[in-house]
Description:
Blueprint: H1 14-17, E1 27-32, H2 36-48, E2 53-59, E3 76-78, H3 81-85, E4 91-94, H4 102-111, E5 115-118, H5 121-138, E6 142-143, H6 154-161, E7 167-173, H7 176-185, H8 191-200, H9 209-212, H10 215-228, E8 231-232, H11 248-256, E9 259-270, E10 273-284, H12 288-291, E11 296-303, E12 307-314, H13 318-333, E13 344-345, E14 348-349, E15 353-362, H14 368-378, E16 383-387, E17 397-407, H15 408-419, E18 429-434
Helix pairs in contact: 2-13, 4-5, 5-10, 7-8, 14-15
The structure holds NADP nicotinamide-adenine-dinucleotide phosphate (NAP).
Amino acid sequence: xxxxxxxxxxxxxxxxxxxxxxxxxxxxxxxxxxxxxxxxxxxxxxxxxxxxxxxxxxxxxxxxxxxxxxxxxxxxxxxxxxxxxxxxxxxxxxxxxxxxxxxxxxxxxxxxxxxxxxxxxxxxxxxxxxxxxxxxxxxxxxxxxxxxxxxxxxxxxxxxxxxxxxxxxxxxxxxxxxxxxxxxxxxxxxxxxxxxxxxxxxxxxxxxxxxxxxxxxxxxxxxxxxxxxxxxxxxxxxxxxxxxxxxxxxxxxxxxxxxxxxxxxxxxxxxxxxxxxxxxxxxxxxxxxxxxxxxxxxxxxxxxxxxxxxxxxxxxxxxxxxxxxxxxxxxxxxxxxxxxxxxxxxxxxxxxxxxxxxxxxxxxxxxxxxxxxxxxxxxxxxxxxxxxxxxxxxxxxxxxxxxxxxxxxxxxxxxxxxxxxxxxxxxxxxxxxxx
Length: 435
Ligand SMILES: NC(=O)c1ccc[n+]([C@@H]2O[C@H](COP(=O)([O-])OP(=O)(O)OC[C@H]3O[C@@H](n4cnc5c(N)ncnc54)[C@H](OP(=O)(O)O)[C@@H]3O)[C@@H](O)[C@H]2O)c1
């Protein structure tokens, strides 16, 4: 018989600690949002019957069309959020997405002393700190292991597995849509063709800006930065760069340089200064980041003491993401301790001192290379290589210059100068090279 209780103690209260060792607390669970992830979470709860987890309510707008035959008859299907929030459920699993009304539901659940599990990266990136404070004040828990990299346990890995280290750098592939597009372009396809395929497969939205523009990844990076680098940043301060400027020519040149191209989210702490950026970058073929294919995600966390730790796997999709949600629920049932990671607000820069790949598209004439090298030299930037492949017409000639590690600001000034040259057909493409 399901055991109904409206005021179960939070799992880290003395009452919860007196539970028989190894036994799970019984949790009544309501899912808010029965879409891709919500229905997968329900499937796992119904099929696997994890110890201590009872799915009692499913909330969605126009819920009648969502009913499924495999759900037990005991589940209450509701389109009344207020009624479910006022019920005796212990945990709200928020899987509707977006800032509102999801944020309102989460706040109200925490206010009522319930716990919340969510996969909502936007909500956590913008309001996670306030919501965690609210949870702590009211005796509930807020868990969001699925909010970054779907089914890959990177959040618990950072919160617990690497808590003993001082993480100095993060490099991640945090957006499966971009990874699908770029890893297909690596095989020779053009951006527009692969985007259409990604949309047909359901990997990309009709308006793909959130993904290809880097906005989705920067929200995830902001979450990871708080857990790994212990800094609170406003996601809007991370300036994203779109992958739409990448062409097959860039993959061809990248290959000649022993590299490929991926959308990388990176953050670094050097001498107390924090820098973060999201955008397409050149990645050495020997780097694990280059091995991620399709919609896979990857995070490399570099610890001061323990070195690099790589997390990789399926970063999206109903079932992989649902696994992370159910794992959070099980942690609650087994008496999850609140992980309090100290973090402080930080001012953010985007100044990385790294080598760069710069692709020019010019109408050829004598003296172009000399003019470019002079403009770079004026900013004390050393050229590493000049690469020009045969087979392109002189009226639209792409060629590449790579430069030794230099400050992004110095390169920006040099490129502003170079861009004003009359031979330049498009803005030069500047990509960081990860080493
Ligand atoms: N899908 C993934 O691979 C993935 C991976 C990691 C994290 N996440 C996160 O998980 C969350 C859910 O994603 P999803 O892919 O499952 O989304 P989804 O398929 O669009 O499902 C969202 C569900 O919530 C319902 N909903 C949305 N707004 C509502 C409202 N105002 N009132 C009532 N119901 C509402 C939707 O109903 P309708 O059917 O009427 O629209 C839909 O059933 C998001 O925060 C997302 O960022 C998803």
